[in-house]
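@channel sequence for tomorrow's demo:
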Amino acid sequence: MTAWESVSAEAREVHRQSIVIDTATFFLKGYGNIVEEGGVTAVSLTTPWPWDSFETGVKRTEEYYALARTDPRLLLVERAEDIRRAKAEEKVGMILWSQGLNLIGDHVPHLETLFRLGYRVLQLTYSERNYLGDGCDEDTDVGLSKLGRQVVKELNRLRILVDVSHSGPRTALEAAELSEQPIVVSHANPRSLYEHKRNVSDELIRTVAAKGGVVGACPYAPLNWDGDPNHKPTIDNFVTAIDYMVQMVGIDHVGLGTDSEATEGAYPAEVIAELGRRYPDLGSAFRNAFGRGAKMEGFRGMRDLPLLTEKLLQRGYKAEDVSKVLGGNWLRVFEAVWPS
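C-alpha coordinates (generated this afternoon):
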Protein backbone atom coordinates (compact mmCIF):
# COMPACT_ATOMS: atom_id res chain seq x y z
CA MET A 1 0.00 0.00 0.00
CA THR A 2 1.32 3.44 -0.91
CA ALA A 3 1.38 6.40 1.47
CA TRP A 4 -1.33 7.99 -0.66
CA GLU A 5 -3.64 5.03 -0.12
CA SER A 6 -3.00 4.80 3.61
CA VAL A 7 -3.85 8.37 4.68
CA SER A 8 -7.23 9.90 5.44
CA ALA A 9 -9.50 11.50 2.87
CA GLU A 10 -8.79 14.88 4.47
CA ALA A 11 -5.03 14.45 4.11
CA ARG A 12 -5.40 13.35 0.48
CA GLU A 13 -7.48 16.42 -0.31
CA VAL A 14 -5.07 18.84 1.39
CA HIS A 15 -2.13 17.23 -0.38
CA ARG A 16 -3.92 17.21 -3.73
CA GLN A 17 -4.81 20.91 -3.49
CA SER A 18 -1.31 21.98 -2.36
CA ILE A 19 1.69 22.96 -4.44
CA VAL A 20 4.26 20.47 -3.11
CA ILE A 21 7.94 21.36 -3.53
CA ASP A 22 10.89 19.20 -2.50
CA THR A 23 14.03 21.32 -2.54
CA ALA A 24 16.57 18.51 -2.07
CA THR A 25 16.46 15.46 -4.31
CA PHE A 26 18.57 13.79 -6.98
CA PHE A 27 18.90 11.26 -9.79
CA LEU A 28 15.54 11.72 -11.49
CA LYS A 29 15.28 9.39 -14.48
CA GLY A 30 11.71 10.26 -15.48
CA TYR A 31 8.21 10.60 -14.10
CA GLY A 32 7.79 7.48 -11.99
CA ASN A 33 6.47 5.91 -8.81
CA ILE A 34 8.31 8.09 -6.30
CA VAL A 35 7.24 11.47 -7.66
CA GLU A 36 3.72 10.20 -8.35
CA GLU A 37 3.21 8.71 -4.88
CA GLY A 38 4.70 11.81 -3.26
CA GLY A 39 2.31 14.08 -5.14
CA VAL A 40 5.09 16.57 -5.83
CA THR A 41 4.69 19.64 -8.04
CA ALA A 42 8.36 20.56 -8.36
CA VAL A 43 11.75 19.29 -7.22
CA SER A 44 15.19 20.85 -6.89
CA LEU A 45 17.57 18.38 -8.50
CA THR A 46 21.23 17.96 -7.60
CA THR A 47 22.52 18.31 -11.14
CA PRO A 48 26.34 18.44 -11.03
CA TRP A 49 27.80 16.04 -8.50
CA PRO A 50 29.55 17.97 -5.70
CA TRP A 51 33.08 17.25 -6.99
CA ASP A 52 32.35 17.78 -10.71
CA SER A 53 34.35 20.10 -12.94
CA PHE A 54 32.45 22.85 -14.73
CA GLU A 55 32.53 20.89 -18.01
CA THR A 56 31.17 17.74 -16.38
CA GLY A 57 28.47 19.75 -14.61
CA VAL A 58 27.32 21.19 -17.93
CA LYS A 59 27.10 17.70 -19.42
CA ARG A 60 24.90 16.55 -16.53
CA THR A 61 22.73 19.62 -17.15
CA GLU A 62 22.29 18.54 -20.76
CA GLU A 63 20.97 15.19 -19.53
CA TYR A 64 18.08 16.96 -17.81
CA TYR A 65 17.38 19.03 -20.91
CA ALA A 66 17.06 15.76 -22.83
CA LEU A 67 14.81 14.30 -20.13
CA ALA A 68 12.49 17.32 -20.30
CA ARG A 69 12.25 16.93 -24.09
CA THR A 70 11.43 13.22 -23.99
CA ASP A 71 9.18 12.90 -20.92
CA PRO A 72 5.90 14.82 -21.35
CA ARG A 73 5.21 14.74 -17.59
CA LEU A 74 8.32 16.84 -16.81
CA LEU A 75 9.20 20.49 -17.44
CA LEU A 76 12.22 22.66 -16.69
CA VAL A 77 11.56 25.48 -14.23
CA GLU A 78 13.10 28.90 -14.86
CA ARG A 79 10.40 31.14 -13.34
CA ALA A 80 8.09 30.72 -10.40
CA GLU A 81 5.12 30.72 -12.76
CA ASP A 82 6.49 27.49 -14.29
CA ILE A 83 5.72 25.77 -10.98
CA ARG A 84 2.13 26.98 -11.11
CA ARG A 85 1.99 25.71 -14.69
CA ALA A 86 3.31 22.30 -13.58
CA LYS A 87 0.52 22.11 -11.01
CA ALA A 88 -2.17 23.08 -13.51
CA GLU A 89 -0.92 20.60 -16.12
CA GLU A 90 -0.27 17.76 -13.63
CA LYS A 91 3.44 17.72 -14.41
CA VAL A 92 6.56 17.83 -12.25
CA GLY A 93 8.78 20.88 -12.51
CA MET A 94 12.56 20.36 -12.45
CA ILE A 95 14.59 23.09 -10.72
CA LEU A 96 18.29 22.88 -11.57
CA TRP A 97 20.40 23.12 -8.41
CA SER A 98 24.01 22.54 -7.50
CA GLN A 99 25.01 21.23 -4.08
CA GLY A 100 28.16 23.28 -3.65
CA LEU A 101 30.04 25.52 -6.04
CA ASN A 102 33.27 23.57 -6.39
CA LEU A 103 32.53 23.47 -10.12
CA ILE A 104 33.13 27.24 -10.54
CA GLY A 105 36.50 27.18 -8.78
CA ASP A 106 37.45 30.83 -8.36
CA HIS A 107 35.86 31.93 -11.65
CA VAL A 108 32.87 34.09 -10.72
CA PRO A 109 31.67 34.63 -14.35
CA HIS A 110 30.66 30.95 -14.39
CA LEU A 111 27.70 31.99 -12.21
CA GLU A 112 26.09 33.95 -15.03
CA THR A 113 26.65 30.99 -17.34
CA LEU A 114 24.87 28.76 -14.83
CA PHE A 115 21.99 31.23 -14.68
CA ARG A 116 21.68 31.17 -18.47
CA LEU A 117 21.78 27.37 -18.35
CA GLY A 118 18.70 27.51 -16.11
CA TYR A 119 20.06 27.29 -12.56
CA ARG A 120 17.91 29.15 -10.05
CA VAL A 121 19.28 27.82 -6.71
CA LEU A 122 22.96 27.41 -5.86
CA GLN A 123 24.44 26.03 -2.66
CA LEU A 124 27.70 27.64 -1.58
CA THR A 125 29.58 24.64 -0.19
CA TYR A 126 29.21 20.89 0.13
CA SER A 127 30.51 19.82 3.55
CA GLU A 128 34.17 20.59 2.78
CA ARG A 129 36.01 23.87 2.23
CA ASN A 130 36.07 25.47 -1.20
CA TYR A 131 37.15 28.91 -2.45
CA LEU A 132 34.04 30.49 -0.91
CA GLY A 133 34.09 29.25 2.68
CA ASP A 134 34.06 26.32 5.03
CA GLY A 135 31.74 23.34 4.78
CA CYS A 136 30.06 21.80 7.79
CA ASP A 137 32.51 18.86 7.96
CA GLU A 138 35.60 21.03 8.43
CA ASP A 139 37.29 21.29 11.82
CA THR A 140 37.68 25.03 11.25
CA ASP A 141 34.88 27.57 11.00
CA VAL A 142 36.47 30.58 9.30
CA GLY A 143 33.40 31.92 7.49
CA LEU A 144 33.07 33.43 4.04
CA SER A 145 36.20 34.27 2.11
CA LYS A 146 36.50 37.52 0.15
CA LEU A 147 35.56 35.52 -2.93
CA GLY A 148 32.61 34.04 -1.06
CA ARG A 149 31.29 37.51 -0.29
CA GLN A 150 31.70 38.44 -3.95
CA VAL A 151 29.78 35.32 -4.98
CA VAL A 152 26.86 36.07 -2.62
CA LYS A 153 26.60 39.57 -4.12
CA GLU A 154 26.76 38.18 -7.65
CA LEU A 155 24.06 35.62 -6.92
CA ASN A 156 21.89 38.48 -5.63
CA ARG A 157 22.53 40.43 -8.84
CA LEU A 158 21.63 37.44 -11.00
CA ARG A 159 18.56 36.68 -8.84
CA ILE A 160 19.73 33.17 -8.07
CA LEU A 161 18.61 31.91 -4.67
CA VAL A 162 21.48 31.44 -2.21
CA ASP A 163 21.41 28.10 -0.33
CA VAL A 164 23.63 27.63 2.74
CA SER A 165 22.95 23.93 3.38
CA HIS A 166 26.12 21.92 4.14
CA SER A 167 27.99 25.15 4.96
CA GLY A 168 30.00 25.69 8.13
CA PRO A 169 28.07 27.61 10.83
CA ARG A 170 29.96 30.87 10.38
CA THR A 171 29.98 30.65 6.57
CA ALA A 172 26.21 30.12 6.54
CA LEU A 173 25.50 32.90 9.01
CA GLU A 174 27.73 35.43 7.26
CA ALA A 175 26.11 34.63 3.91
CA ALA A 176 22.64 35.06 5.42
CA GLU A 177 23.61 38.39 6.95
CA LEU A 178 25.27 39.64 3.76
CA SER A 179 22.53 38.70 1.29
CA GLU A 180 20.20 41.51 0.28
CA GLN A 181 17.58 38.98 -0.80
CA PRO A 182 15.91 36.06 0.98
CA ILE A 183 18.29 33.18 1.56
CA VAL A 184 17.49 29.52 2.26
CA VAL A 185 18.63 26.31 3.89
CA SER A 186 17.27 23.72 1.48
CA HIS A 187 17.60 20.66 3.74
CA ALA A 188 18.51 20.64 7.44
CA ASN A 189 16.98 20.47 10.92
CA PRO A 190 17.62 22.37 14.17
CA ARG A 191 20.92 21.39 15.71
CA SER A 192 19.55 22.21 19.16
CA LEU A 193 17.17 19.25 18.75
CA TYR A 194 19.41 16.79 16.93
CA GLU A 195 23.18 17.20 17.20
CA HIS A 196 24.65 16.67 13.73
CA LYS A 197 27.13 18.71 11.70
CA ARG A 198 24.63 19.00 8.85
CA ASN A 199 21.97 20.57 11.09
CA VAL A 200 21.82 24.31 11.75
CA SER A 201 21.76 26.64 14.73
CA ASP A 202 18.75 28.51 16.05
CA GLU A 203 20.64 31.72 15.26
CA LEU A 204 20.87 30.80 11.58
CA ILE A 205 17.21 29.76 11.47
CA ARG A 206 16.19 33.13 12.92
CA THR A 207 18.48 35.03 10.55
CA VAL A 208 17.13 33.19 7.49
CA ALA A 209 13.57 33.90 8.62
CA ALA A 210 14.34 37.57 9.26
CA LYS A 211 15.53 37.85 5.65
CA GLY A 212 12.24 36.34 4.44
CA GLY A 213 13.76 32.96 3.66
CA VAL A 214 12.88 29.34 4.38
CA VAL A 215 14.53 26.39 6.10
CA GLY A 216 13.71 23.05 4.49
CA ALA A 217 13.11 20.47 7.20
CA CYS A 218 14.79 17.21 6.22
CA PRO A 219 13.68 13.60 6.93
CA TYR A 220 17.16 12.13 6.32
CA ALA A 221 17.38 9.80 9.31
CA PRO A 222 20.75 10.90 10.84
CA LEU A 223 19.45 14.50 10.97
CA ASN A 224 16.50 13.37 13.12
CA TRP A 225 18.36 11.14 15.57
CA ASP A 226 18.70 11.99 19.26
CA GLY A 227 21.77 9.77 19.65
CA ASP A 228 20.05 6.86 21.39
CA PRO A 229 21.48 3.69 19.76
CA ASN A 230 18.41 1.72 20.84
CA HIS A 231 15.85 3.95 19.11
CA LYS A 232 15.84 4.67 15.39
CA PRO A 233 14.25 8.05 14.54
CA THR A 234 10.65 8.03 13.36
CA ILE A 235 8.45 10.33 11.33
CA ASP A 236 7.40 11.87 14.65
CA ASN A 237 10.97 13.09 15.18
CA PHE A 238 10.75 14.77 11.77
CA VAL A 239 7.43 16.43 12.59
CA THR A 240 8.92 17.61 15.89
CA ALA A 241 11.72 19.34 13.95
CA ILE A 242 9.15 21.10 11.77
CA ASP A 243 7.09 22.11 14.78
CA TYR A 244 10.15 23.40 16.63
CA MET A 245 11.02 25.78 13.78
CA VAL A 246 7.42 26.87 13.28
CA GLN A 247 7.18 27.77 16.97
CA MET A 248 10.46 29.68 16.75
CA VAL A 249 10.10 31.69 13.52
CA GLY A 250 6.54 31.20 12.31
CA ILE A 251 4.72 29.10 9.76
CA ASP A 252 5.94 31.18 6.79
CA HIS A 253 9.58 30.13 7.08
CA VAL A 254 9.54 26.32 7.09
CA GLY A 255 9.47 24.05 4.05
CA LEU A 256 10.71 20.62 2.94
CA GLY A 257 13.88 19.17 1.46
CA THR A 258 13.79 15.37 1.69
CA ASP A 259 17.38 14.63 0.58
CA SER A 260 16.10 11.45 -1.07
CA GLU A 261 16.33 10.00 -4.57
CA ALA A 262 13.63 10.84 -7.09
CA THR A 263 13.83 7.55 -9.00
CA GLU A 264 14.00 4.20 -7.24
CA GLY A 265 17.40 2.53 -7.54
CA ALA A 266 18.95 5.42 -9.47
CA TYR A 267 21.55 6.37 -6.84
CA PRO A 268 24.89 5.46 -8.48
CA ALA A 269 27.13 3.15 -6.46
CA GLU A 270 30.13 5.29 -7.39
CA VAL A 271 28.55 8.32 -5.71
CA ILE A 272 27.81 6.37 -2.53
CA ALA A 273 31.41 5.19 -2.46
CA GLU A 274 32.83 8.66 -3.06
CA LEU A 275 30.68 10.21 -0.35
CA GLY A 276 31.92 7.58 2.08
CA ARG A 277 35.53 8.22 1.10
CA ARG A 278 35.31 12.01 1.34
CA TYR A 279 33.10 12.33 4.43
CA PRO A 280 33.64 9.21 6.57
CA ASP A 281 32.67 10.96 9.81
CA LEU A 282 29.34 12.45 8.67
CA GLY A 283 26.67 10.10 10.01
CA SER A 284 29.18 7.50 11.21
CA ALA A 285 27.58 7.16 14.66
CA PHE A 286 24.18 6.58 13.06
CA ARG A 287 25.60 3.99 10.66
CA ASN A 288 27.32 2.19 13.51
CA ALA A 289 24.03 1.99 15.40
CA PHE A 290 21.64 1.06 12.58
CA GLY A 291 23.64 0.15 9.48
CA ARG A 292 24.44 1.96 6.25
CA GLY A 293 21.41 3.24 4.38
CA ALA A 294 19.02 2.89 7.31
CA LYS A 295 15.98 5.14 7.03
CA MET A 296 13.72 6.53 9.71
CA GLU A 297 10.75 4.47 10.81
CA GLY A 298 7.56 5.37 8.97
CA PHE A 299 9.06 7.61 6.30
CA ARG A 300 11.14 6.55 3.30
CA GLY A 301 11.55 9.91 1.56
CA MET A 302 9.70 11.90 -1.07
CA ARG A 303 7.25 9.11 -1.86
CA ASP A 304 5.87 9.30 1.71
CA LEU A 305 5.08 13.03 1.77
CA PRO A 306 1.31 12.33 2.12
CA LEU A 307 2.13 10.75 5.49
CA LEU A 308 3.65 14.05 6.57
CA THR A 309 0.48 15.87 5.55
CA GLU A 310 -1.51 13.47 7.73
CA LYS A 311 0.84 13.91 10.69
CA LEU A 312 0.74 17.71 10.51
CA LEU A 313 -3.06 17.68 10.44
CA GLN A 314 -3.07 15.35 13.43
CA ARG A 315 -0.81 17.81 15.28
CA GLY A 316 -3.46 20.47 14.83
CA TYR A 317 -2.08 22.38 11.85
CA LYS A 318 -4.71 24.06 9.71
CA ALA A 319 -4.96 22.95 6.08
CA GLU A 320 -3.65 26.30 4.79
CA ASP A 321 -0.63 26.06 7.09
CA VAL A 322 0.12 22.50 5.99
CA SER A 323 0.07 23.78 2.40
CA LYS A 324 2.62 26.45 3.31
CA VAL A 325 5.02 23.84 4.68
CA LEU A 326 4.47 21.50 1.73
CA GLY A 327 5.45 24.11 -0.83
CA GLY A 328 3.66 27.42 -0.48
CA ASN A 329 6.54 28.99 1.43
CA TRP A 330 9.09 27.89 -1.17
CA LEU A 331 6.95 29.33 -3.94
CA ARG A 332 6.71 32.68 -2.11
CA VAL A 333 10.51 32.89 -1.87
CA PHE A 334 10.96 31.87 -5.51
CA GLU A 335 8.55 34.59 -6.57
CA ALA A 336 10.44 37.14 -4.45
CA VAL A 337 13.91 36.26 -5.78
CA TRP A 338 13.72 34.77 -9.25
CA PRO A 339 13.24 36.95 -12.34
CA SER A 340 9.70 36.93 -13.69
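heads up for whoever presents: Residues 311 and 317 are 9 Å apart (CA to CA).
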